[in-house]
Amino acid sequence: MTSAEDALRAWAVHGRVADFPYALFLGHLRSVGKHFLDAELLRLLDEIRRSVAESDSDSESESEGCDGPPFLHRFLDVVLDKHDDRYDYPSYTALSLLTRPAPADRHEALRSRDEMVLLLLADLVRFEERASTDTPDAPHVMPPSPELVAKRARLAVRVMESAALRALPSGVVDAVAVAAVPGRTPGGPLAAEILRSAAPEQALALSASVQPVYVLHDEYLFLRTLQSFETTFTFMSSALATAVRRLDDDRPQESAELVGAVADVLKESLPLFSLLATMRPEAFQTFRTFTEGASAIQSAGYKTFESLCSTPSLARLASSAYTSVPRVRERVVNGQATVQGTWHALIAAHRLDPADDAALRAAADRLESVHQRWKQTHYRLAVRMIGERSGTGYTQGVPYLAAVLDNRLFPAPDRHSALVG
Ligand code: HEM
């Protein structure tokens, strides 16, 4: 029996939710990989989940002031996804432990995105830097060279700086130096400062949300990159939903500002792909053997933001792009309002003056162009990492990504029906 199993058995007898041995168990999980957890240990965790569910219904076990099951229950659901045969992209990336509904106020929503991205990338920088010490954190097979660690820190900092300038107290990052030469803020001290001020529940969510399927160092980078993008998509979706409402309320300038803010934050996030491109293809090709069935084609955040720009074509709605996200698909089929649809309705009703129309056009064009860059970079990364292999989301892989390059978020009316899936 492992010490993690001992600790869990002891906890199951007397334990309080607050004393759950997260650190010990996660250390064990990361040293073997989630795909390789022992069957007996999984049965024990399943029993623990059942008893946690019973005490959840007594509702005194944890009070977190938010909807959904308490944290420990959600944590066990993520751990047991493969055991339950429920394994997919949201459970692989442990999104239920990280994401919360974006605040309604757009500034608060951006702040919430910035804080989470900073935590995720600070944790990544810390993890990478510890790889060069005598006691690296698990997963630690195929450690990176010191040069690779330094390169990853520099690339993470390129995404962190703009968020840090908005969300951290002034002076933590030197605004003048960033304006002169971006990406030069020392990553280690910045990460330490961010992690030092993390609240205990943030630190727990950070730690609990790294559940790699295997033991290779680079999977940590993969998970944190996906999670940083997902956090960004959550903000983008909420800002676009607000943009639709502002249009409906005849406040097109505010709507244009929101669409512009979405373009800016996606642009700032593009270096995440450069960061992920430092993943070693041989590491990726090894651990992805155990991620079959989990693919970002199941990202509800991405499809929500996309489908809030304009209604996807019937072909795309019928393809695995949307059948992989049934709840998003259902909202679209039920007539979800979009930026483009609401904008065109205002024009048809003569409720939009030319200056407002031009502001919307400019913001939509910016978002379109940065999203095209996002798709092209993603496509190139996939070519490099998987070549001709099929996708873990059961598409052909790269040919699927090549086909979606022609899609547009704001298609010209006559192009719309020609969109591919
Ligand atoms: C090693 C890096 C990556 C590779 C090899 C890769 C590969 C793929 C492949 C092959 C697909 C097609 C679906 C499938 O069969 O799985 C896909 C879809 C997708 N990927 Fe990635 N991907 C990578 C990184 C990322 C990252 C970091 C994100 C950010 C969240 C992302 C977001 C998406 C999205 C949103 C789709 C669905 C696109 C659509 O349906 O139009 N991918 N990816």
Average pLDDT, rounded to a whole number, is: 94
- Total beta strands: 0
Order of SSEs, N→C?
HHHHHHHHHHHHHHHHHHHHHHH
Q: Write down the CATH topology of the largest domain.
A: Methane Monooxygenase Hydroxylase, Chain G, domain 1
Decide which structural class fits the backbone: mainly alpha
What's the number of structural domains?
2
Examine the secondary-structure arrangement and name the CATH architecture of the largest domain.
Up-down Bundle
- The helical percent reads 55-70%
Distance between the termini: 50 Å
Our estimate of the beta-strand percent is under 5%
- Kindly provide the name of the CATH class of the largest domain: Mainly Alpha
Could you describe the 3D structure shown?
This protein has 421 residues and is an all-alpha fold. It contains 23 helices and no strands. It folds into 2 domains: 3-87, no CATH class; 106-275 and 293-418, Methane Monooxygenase Hydroxylase, Chain G, domain 1 (Up-down Bundle). The protein has helices spanning 3-14, 22-32, 39-58, 71-79, 81-84, 89-92, 95-98, 106-130, 146-167, 175-180, 187-196, 200-208, 218-248, 252-269, 271-276, 281-287, 300-309, 314-318, 320-323, 326-333, 339-348, 354-386, 398-404. The longest helix is centred in the C-terminal third of the chain and has 33 residues, at 354-386. The radius of gyration is 22 Å and the shape is globular. It starts with a helix and ends in a 17-residue tail after the last helix. The model is unreliable at 61-66 and 415-421 (pLDDT under 50). Bound molecules: protoporphyrin IX containing FE. Protoporphyrin IX containing FE (HEM) is lined by residues 225-226, 229, 276, 284, 295-297, 299, 302, 321, 378, 381-382, 385-386, 391-395, 397, 400-401, 404.
